[in-house]
Amino acid sequence: MANVIIIRPISESWDGELYKRALSIPHGPLTLSAHLIDKGFDPLIIDEIALTETIRTEISEKAINKLKNSMQKEKPICVGISSMTGEQIRRGKIFAKMVRDFDETIPIVWGGAHPSLLPEMTIEDETVDLICTGEGDISFPILVNELKKNGTGDLSKVPGLVYKEKNNEIKKTKPAPLYRMDDMPPFPYHLLDMELYIKNIKKKDITRYFEINSSRGCPYKCSFCLNSKEGIPYTKARSSRIIQEMVRLKNEYKIDGISFNDENFILNKKRIEEIAQAAIDLNLNIKMRGGGRVELFLKFDDRYLELFKKAGFYHFALGVESGSNKTLKSINKQITTDQIMDVIDALVKHKFQSTYNFIAGFPNETIEDFQETLRTIYHIFERCKYMVYPIPAPSFYCPLPGTKSFDDAVELGHTVPKTFEEWTDVDYNLKEMVWISKEFHEFIVKSRDVINNINMKYTGDNAVITKADLQPLKDIMN
User: Fold this and answer.
1) What residues contact residue 188 under an 8 Å CB cut-off, 6+ apart?
2) Per the count of CB atoms within 10 A, which of 151, 178, 312, 373 is most buried?
3) What is the pTM of this model?
4) What domains can you pick out in the chain, each with its CATH number?
């Protein structure tokens, strides 16, 4: 039986992607559960995507039953819901209403990126009782400990908490101190259906795949990214702690592939070198994926890249965002198109697999700017014919609160949602992006289809890519 329930709702709702592509590890709920177990609690994780065969508007029966059955067996101290901006809010509210209908006295605690960014608006919603802002490593276990006192606990003791007093006055406690990732208790993998996650993601030459978060946040200030907001820290685990986790996953779950899901894994040159050398010395024989910023990758000369290859690194993902120097400057990316080309050359030279991620529709971006991006994408397709799916279709830019790009979008006509619930509707492939022209939006939709169709032809060394395959992209990039 569980005395704390933590829910991660599905985050995706796009019509073009209403299918189960792959299961990502619920790192947030897993981390909070590790801390709760360390403090003597018994958590349950409900990861909605893992309980859903095909993504629909409604919650799956499996997920509903798991929540209801757990509450029937034991009334939880609280139910936690993690949410980013968008679809997770809508689905999270459905889960919250189920809890309310079952027992309105069960506290519902929201956390994650969106509630942390807009706590005052979020706390006004009827499905929200408390908000744990920030990472939650320190604050959530303290909160659960106070809540278990059945009304006699002192919420003012909980750092990083937002709640309402009986007179409806909003209270905010001081932020929690930064938590050291090296101090993490063991991850409770037994709370997950590990085989489901391990076997679900298919990668070339990998049969048992898993993800690790070895750092949190990013110290750079790209104007569209939540990490640009003041007060969002960057922290990382030491290489020794990461290697320890890799060895555990290898020994206990026979993992043969690992993705470092950090926002900027390659930030620390010494740390990645230590990880690579340890993988060689321990003969881990694990294929590894990482990623980060373009200019950081350029720190690695041939010696480093040969070391990474020997260690088992085979794939690097890069946040390129745009192929236009004008756009790169406007979003404070602090890279140039020349650096992008240099990275492509280095990755191709050493025959790494790679993924280049782009975003389309930034405020003040034009069709002509985006065509420069398309020309960069064309160049990558030409250079990377041995790779597997190197360029997913550019993501639609989404205005995230607290960022400069969000403010730019508002100046150009973007309507700011006035309630927590209104923040659910941010799927810009289904609606107009008012900060750019309708013509530009339609052009993005068309170009995404073209790029996706080409990308699917890239199936590895044996793929035959011709100029005719690339012609549809060439037709629209000039």
Assistant:
1) 30, 33, 34, 37, 43
2) 373
3) 0.93
4) 4-165 (3.40.50.280), 193-397+433-477 (3.80.30.20)
